[in-house]
Specification:
Layout lengths: L9 H17 L18 E4 L1 H4 L5 H13 L2 H4 L3 E3 L5 E4 L5 E3 L7 H11 L3 E7 L15 H10 L4 E5 L8 H14 L5 E4 L17 E3 L8 H12 L10 E3 L12 H13 L4 E3 L8 H7 L2 H7 L8 E7 L2 E7 L5 E7 L5 E6 L9 E6 L4 E7 L1 E6 L3 E9 L2
Parallel strand pairs: 1-2, 1-10, 2-5, 5-6, 6-7, 7-8, 8-9
Antiparallel strand pairs: 3-4, 11-12, 12-13, 13-18, 14-17, 15-16, 15-18
This protein binds alpha-D-galactopyranose.
Alpha-D-galactopyranose (GLA) binds next to loops.
Length: 396
């Protein structure tokens, strides 16, 4: 597990947020060179085993999860990548080829990938840039090209590459090595960089991977979710199609937060154009969890093809924020975010949100309801630890 790294102070975060507003909403940012592998043009959506199951992964879990992604409507809502995290691998053969746990995956990884594909989904796997994974399984160091070929033979569509047991290695170099190995195998594969923001990935990862973790591991607790949100928010200016900040996978439905808090978690990931990788047990999720994870109007904000990461545009007090994300059709998505423990009134000014009109239509993305036409601002009361999320469009 990664250890704690330094954090930017609240004032620092605020100043960076302001800069991000200027860059993010004015549209003046020119993306640095992007990994041109044609995938993840919108933030990747899918499911990953780690948050709920840890090392307890198996062929039957992955198959049942793929089935549940289809039957729950999650596939149709946009969830595509089914990713096995750490612990699927046990050793290397005499030829150096990575070997899957044959007790847990008796039919092998290729057969499992084929099953996932037969459901209209895509298949992902996990490795580590160092000598061993975070759970002590074989890492890819020194085997980058061989592993990339193996994954292509197995029809893998997504690789998450971790950063444990990599001391003395240079992150930009090692991740570029794996990127180049993947480029040689002739299969479009999403590269998910996971070095927890330790080596300033926002400075180099857009030309190396499709997404990069900005933070340490999320926990299924409100303060952890908030910490990851605040860190990822500082790097909004670099996100663009094919290249996304990753504040870590979703905890929605894992039981450590209330449904209001999970709605906030999901809304904030969406306004930040974060990857939406569910991390719960899809096979047994509640109706409330399913409703959150499949909200089409919130997912549409995350997946908007303009590819902007939303930013804070108004913070009247430390626990009250208004965030805005510019969308392709000229409208803006706004979350009015109450981080405090009491209900609070918040107002979203159209101009501050980046919509330079005096009158606009407002639609509530959780209530699925047009709220009407408003002048200059939309104001409402937001419950504790929750959001009101709206889409605001100029009246024509
Ligand atoms: C690290 C990563 C997690 C997960 C575990 C697996 O902690 O950050 O997301 O992949 O390793 O061991």
């Amino acid at each position: 597990m990664p250890i704690l790294s330094g954090r930017t102070t609240r004032n620092g975060a605020w100043a960076l947020g302001l800069l991000a507003v200027v860059l993010g909403l004015s549209g003046s940012y020119t993306p640095q060179s992007t990994l041109d592998n044609g995938v993840a043009l919108t933030p990747p959506m899918g499911w990953n085993s780690w948050n709920h199951f840890g090392c307890n992964v198996s062929e039957s879990l992955i198959r049942e999860t793929a089935d549940a992604i289809v039957s729950s409507g999650m596939r149709d809502a946009g969830y595509k990548y089914v990713v096995i995290d750490d612990c699927w691998q046990v050793s290397r053969g005499a030829d150096g080829v990575i070997v899957a746990d044959s007790t847990r995956f008796p039919h092998g990884i290729r057969a499992l990938a084929d099953y996932v594909h037969s459901k209209g989904l895509k298949f992902g796997i996990y490795t580590d840039a160092g000598t061993k994974t975070c759970q002590g399984r074989p890492g890819t160091y020194g085997h980058e090209e061989q592993d990339a070929r193996t994954y292509a033979d197995w029809h893998v569509d997504y690789v998450k590459e971790d950063w444990c047991n990599a001391s003395g290695l240079d992150a930009p170099t090692q991740y570029a090595k794996f990127r180049d190995a993947l480029a040689k195998v002739g299969r479009p594969i999403v590269l998910s960089i996971c070095e927890w923001g330790y080596n300033h990935p926002w400075d180099w990862a857009p030309s190396t991977g499709n997404l990069w973790r900005t933070t340490e591991d999320i926990e299924d607790k409100w303060p952890s979710m908030i910490t990851n949100l605040d860190i990822s928010a500082q790097h909004s200016a670099v996100a663009h199609p094919g290249a996304w900040n990753d504040p870590d996978m979703l905890e929605v439905g894992n039981g450590g937060m209330t449904d209001n808090e999970y709605r906030a978690h999901f809304s904030m990931w969406a306004i930040m154009a974060a990857p939406l990788i569910a991390g719960n047990d899809i096979r047994s999720m509640s109706e409330a969890t399913k409703t959150i994870l499949t909200n089409p109007e919130v997912i549409a904000v995350d997946q908007d093809s303009l590819g902007r990461q939303g930013v804070i545009v108004w913070e009247p007090s430390p626990d009250l924020q208004v965030w805005s994300k510019k969308l392709r059709d000229g409208s803006v998505a706004v979350t009015m975010f109450n981080r405090s423990t009491a209900p609070a009134k918040l107002s979203a000014s159209f101009w501050r949100a980046g919509l330079h009109v005096d009158s606009a239509k407002v639609r509530d993305l959780w209530e699925h309801k047009n709220l009407g036409t408003f002048k200059r601002e939309y104001a409402t009361t937001v419950p504790a630890h929750s959001v009101v999320m709206v889409r605001i469009a100029a009246t024509t």
